């Protein structure tokens, strides 16, 4: 019986290149939800454009959400040194949640100004924001604690810090979803604040004293 040839592991560079493509497509899809305004009789162009504020909000905030993940994805991949099959699949799941974001963004833009359906749209949107945070945290935990795919020179303190940070973000988004079930506007405000907190530069990698960075 002919033996199967072993396949080389997916490189981190190839995963990152694929991720760049998914990020680019997802972030581009957001603008497609902004429709050209159709003027009613006597309506000015400025009034019509002002009526697009939910779509513009969804586009601007959604662009920042995906852009922040893209920047931090580049950062975290500078910490990985190896890959394996399961790590590749976990990244596919994470990217699936990123590619999904334009849909809940469109739902939010459509119904955020509608008092009858605003609550459901916001809860759905915040739940969608939680998914990338959960899959991101899970991928990091697998890579750093299970498969040991991160740079061997990184200090345990630094790896533990990122583990708590990423797990804390996922837990915070879960809590925000619960808050939104009680007060959707407050939940949305908290979701915006938590997301924009990641605009700040990430922590510089820390290495063990017995290794050269």
Write the layout of secondary structure elements.
Blueprint: H1 12-29, H2 45-50, H3 53-77, H4 85-100, H5 102-111, H6 118-146, H7 156-182, H8 184-196
Question: What is the gist of this entry?
Answer:
The protein has helices at residues 12-29, 45-50, 53-77, 85-100, 102-111, 118-146, 156-182, 184-196. With 213 residues, it is mostly helical.
Give an overview of the whole structure:
This protein is 68% helix and 0% strand. With 213 residues, the protein is mostly helical. The protein has one domain (12-199). Helix 1 packs antiparallel against helix 3. It is elongated. 29% of the residues are buried.
Q: In angstroms, what separates the terminal alpha carbons?
A: 48 Å
Structural class category: mainly alpha
Taken in chain order, the helices and strands follow as HHHHHHHH
How would a crystallographer describe the biggest sheet?
A: none
What is the 3D shape? elongated
Number of domains: 1
| Count of discrete alpha- or pi-helical segments spanning 4 or more residues | 8
Q: What's the total count of β strands?
A: 0
Q: Rg from C-alpha positions?
A: 20 Å
Contiguous low-pLDDT stretches (5 residues minimum) are none
Strand content: under 5%
**Mean pLDDT over all positions:** 90
| Approximate helicity band | 55-70%
Index terms:
213 residues; single chain; elongated; 8 helices; mainly alpha; 68% helix
């Amino acid at each position: 019986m002919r033996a199967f040839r072993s396949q080389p592991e997916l490189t981190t560079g190839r995963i990152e290149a694929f991720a760049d493509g998914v990020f680019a497509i997802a972030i581009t899809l957001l603008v497609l939800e902004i429709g050209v305004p159709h003027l009613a009789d006597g309506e000015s162009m400025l009034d019509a454009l002002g009526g697009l504020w939910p779509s513009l909000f969804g586009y601007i905030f959604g662009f920042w959400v995906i852009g922040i993940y893209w920047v931090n994805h580049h950062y975290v991949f500078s910490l990985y040194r190896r890959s394996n099959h399961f790590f590749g699949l976990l990244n596919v799941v994470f990217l699936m949640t990123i590619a999904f974001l334009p849909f809940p963004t469109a739902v939010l833009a459509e119904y955020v100004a509608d008092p009858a359906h605003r609550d459901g749209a916001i809860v759905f949107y915040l739940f969608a924001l939680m998914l990338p945070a959960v899959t991101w945290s899970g991928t990091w935990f697998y890579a750093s604690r299970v498969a040991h795919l991160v740079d061997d020179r990184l200090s345990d303190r630094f790896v533990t810090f990122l583990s708590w940070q990423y797990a804390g973000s996922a837990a915070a988004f879960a809590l925000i979803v619960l808050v939104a079930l009680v007060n959707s506007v407050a939940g949305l405000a908290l979701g915006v604040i938590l997301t924009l907190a990641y605009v700040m530069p990430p922590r510089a990698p820390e290495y063990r004293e017995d290794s050269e960075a």
